[in-house]
Amino acid sequence: MVPCLDAVTVVHNAFRRDLSEIDQAVYEVARHGGDLSPLVVRLQYFGDILDRHEKGEEHAVFPELDRVAPLLAPLFVDDHREMAEGLGEVVGAADELDAARATSVLHTHVRTHLAKEDTYLYPVLRDRIDLGEQATIVGQLWGRSFPPDEVLPQYMNWLFGLVNQDDQATITTVWKQLMTEEIFGVCTPLIRDAVTTSDWSELSRRIPGLT
Ligand SMILES: [Fe+2]
């Protein structure tokens, strides 16, 4: 059985990779010229996924953190608020230079925040909460953060396009553990469409019963 909290790290990896690419691309536009608007659209999508994820953490994860390690959660909530403000500054930037500066600040902030969560927050939960309760927390987190059906294909393309085969296998395995057969059956073809042929072969090899 894969610990369900591992799925959270996978999503964090996708955030890191996406924002790193966006930051680099915005810098290139500021430096050499080009059209910023597709990058703003991409960043808005990133912001939408990040917002869902943060609300899920605040609903499902931070109350449990308060229970087993009081006083830490407010620090992470402050980060969430500041990252939302940072996203607003990029989207509302007056020109390419301002956008590049704001994106770089946001990138640093998000990276630092995710590192703190991966280094302190989630290890504390792994240490102090049993695997069954961890699964409940992650189930509630996904319940809050999973996109609605009509935009699920876009989400699968986003997530599976940004992470490596190990992460793809981890998150698919956790979903298989947590989801009903019916919901997992909805996700499976979307995952297959989102990954390359060789990624799908590898996923099928690693996860018995994946069809
Ligand atoms: Fe967070």
Q: What would your notes on this structure say?
A:
The protein has 211 residues and is mainly α. It has two domains: 1-130; 147-211, no CATH class. It has helices at 6-32, 37-68, 73-91, 96-128, 131-145, 152-162, 165-178, 181-194, 197-206. The radius of gyration is 18 Å and the shape is globular. The mean pLDDT is 95.
Report the major sheet. none
- Strand proportion: under 5%
Low-confidence stretches: none
Oligomer: single chain
Helix coverage percent of residues? over 70%
Keywords:
9 helices, globular, 2 domains, mainly alpha, 211 residues, binds fe (ii) ion
Strand and helix layout:
Elements: H1 6-32, H2 37-68, H3 73-91, H4 96-128, H5 131-145, H6 152-162, H7 165-178, H8 181-194, H9 197-206
Helix pairs in contact: 1-2, 1-4, 1-6, 1-7, 2-3, 2-5, 3-4, 6-8, 7-9
Bound molecules: fe (ii) ion.
What's the short story on this structure?
This protein has 211 residues and is an all-alpha fold.
